[in-house]
Amino acid sequence: MLKFRFTLLLVGWLASWTAGCATPWTRKDVVIYGATSAGVIAAVQAARMDRSVVLIEPSRHVGGLTTSGLGSTDFGNKQVIGGLSREFYQRIKQHYDQPRAWRYERPEDYKRYRSQDDTMWTFEPGVAEQVFQDMLREQGIKVVYGQRLKPRRGVVKRGQRIDAIRMESGRTFAGRMFIDATYEGDLLAQAGVSYFVGREPNALYGETLNGVQHQHAVHHQFVKPVDPYIVPGKPSSGLLPGVNNRPGADGQGDRRVQAYNYRICMTDVPENRVPFSKPADYDEREYELLFRNFEADDMRLPLGISMMPNRKTDVNNNFAVSTDYIGMNYDYPESHNPRRERIRHAHETYMKGLLWTLQNHPRVPAPIREKMAKWGLAKDEFEDNGHWPRTLYIREARRMVSDYVITEHDCMWRRRAKDGVGLGSYNMDSHNTQRFVTAEGYVRNEGDVQISPKGPYPIPYRSIVSRRGECDNLLVPVCISASHIAFGSVRMEPVFMVLGQSAATAASLAIDQGAPVQEVDIARLRERLRKDGQVLTWDGWDR
Q1: How far apart are CA 81 and CA 496, in angstroms?
Q2: What are the beta bridge partners of residue 175?
Q3: In angstroms, rounded to a whole number, what is the distance separating the alpha carbons of residues 356 and 146?
Q4: Distance CA 335, CA 394 (A)
Q5: Which of 141, 216, 314, 400 is deepest in the core (most CB within 10 A)?
Q6: pLDDT tens for residues 42-87?
Q7: Contact of 468 with 485, CB cutoff 8 Å
Q8: CA distances from 224 to 47, 290, 291, 407, 527 (A)
Q9: Which pLDDT does position 16 carry in this prediction?
Q10: Nearest alpha-carbon partner for 302 in 401, 209, 369, 383
Q11: Phi and psi torsions of 375, nearest 5°
């Protein structure tokens, strides 16, 4: 009788436990958390290698920044972007080869469209999402939307292997291999993998461009003297929002991360334009530095406007006070979603307020207001989100610390890894991390570094897997093992796609070998990557 009751209790417990799970478990060869561009490409590659795969996304859309306004691709050297990443840009070009793709301008009027090219590197957000959806549909991959990793005990781990991951909804996804393709690295953190947030001191890896950077912070800078105090000339009145008086010494490490923003899709086509609106929680104090900078006679339009097809834009940060909400994101990388949502909302409010201010506020010079008068949000983009980009540009959050940390020495060819699974080539690009008061009593930005590497450099396989002994079946193609300044070069969407493909390929080979991901046969991995079109070497290394 006791045994029978125990059995009933056990059956009841299992029934209640599995009720919230994915019928009751979703078990796949490869489980991918995060449908960023890297996550989408990883899923497609895994499926093409005949692996069962599930792609899990906290939001309701795929593609990350690539489908959320970042249409002006940061590519560095285009020739080193291969495989599925290049296929994506080829499909973008095929879309714009169709006459029906041009609704608000003629292709011959858009200078970045060249009929003879096989790729196109600028695009509208909705087009990018459709291309990703097509790639997923062709492989029969269904995305599981609206599923966010539990903030605590979200990873079920046995020894050094992940067995399953648990969502806030109660669903559980089990697998043989896992890929963390998020911008934040939540999965790797819960899996017990080492990581770093912020800027390492130069001394840690023998670098020169890491940590606090007063000497190199010459871009997107104040070029006129601007007072940082609430009451000009009175330090006792306090500092304006976002300004501090403890910047740190050159090369010193800190926990600051480079600024975030949204990449805005504007248009000047009247029939497709939605007017900028003043946010309900608009705070004029947030723009006092902007007003004072204009009043100091800096008359530059503080927006980086890149034109996309059909008279749309990709708007990025530009000059002293712009779309980067400097210093307001330090808590984001390691926070849970309620706090992150507040940070995202604050960035949205700041940027919406900035656009309205530049177009309407009387303290903005008339020539600036006139330049802004023709713009509004694109009516046919982000229609389920008030025409506002869905994804905040998380330029950097957690970065894994593995057995190989990419540093400026890799970017500058002082060393070259032998186990490359992709190439980086873009500038070491860090946006500003703080605003501070100079000894003269003026405000200055700090952290923006733009230093070109010597050319394409290998991204080693060891930088996308954890240290030996930490996690045997996890690959990380986004929050890879790199110092702050080196990550500034790696962190480009085409590179994330390259690494997503490489991660999925390695996951499949690890299953074949029955081995930890750290022990994948590198020669065999590189052979398969080359077969699938990845570019792993560059002729310039021999010169």
Answers
A1: 11
A2: 28
A3: 31
A4: 13
A5: 400
A6: 999 999 999 999 999 999 999 999 999 999 999 999 999 999 999 9
A7: no
A8: 55, 12, 12, 34, 55
A9: 36
A10: 369
A11: -100, 150
Distance CA 76, CA 490 (A): 10
Tell me what pLDDT residue 271 has: 98
CB of 212 within 8 A of CB of 223? no
- State which amino acid sits at residue 516: P
Using DSSP bridges, classify how beta strands 172-180 and 434-437 pair: parallel, antiparallel or unpaired. unpaired
Bridge partner residues of 312 (DSSP): 267, 308
0.90 exceeded by pTM: yes
Question: SS3 breakdown of the chain: % helix, strand, coil, rounded to 5?
Answer: 35, 20, 45
Q: Give backbone dihedrals phi and psi of 541, rounded to 5 degrees, phi first.
A: -65, -25
Token pair 């078990």 is found at 27
- Enclosing H/E stretch for 156: strand 155-158
**Among 462, 452, 461, residue whose Cα is nearest residue 534:** 461
Tokens, residue 156 = 């079920």
CA distance 491 to 258: 12
- 3 state DSSP class of 244: strand
**Alpha helices, H only, 78-177:** 83-96, 125-138
Instruction: Tell me which residue of 230, 157, 185 sits closest to 38, measured CA to CA.
Output: 185
Residue-wise DSSP of 62-87: SBGGGGTT--B---SSGGG--HHHHH
For 379-428, the DSSP string reads: TTSSGGGTTS-SS-B-----EE--SS-B-HHHHTTS---SSEEEEE-S-E
Tokens representing residue 169 in the block? 């909804």
DSSP-derived secondary structure for 427-450? -EEE---EEEE-TTS-EEEE--EE
Amino acid 543: pLDDT: 55
Residues 6+ apart with CB under 8 A from 86: 119, 533
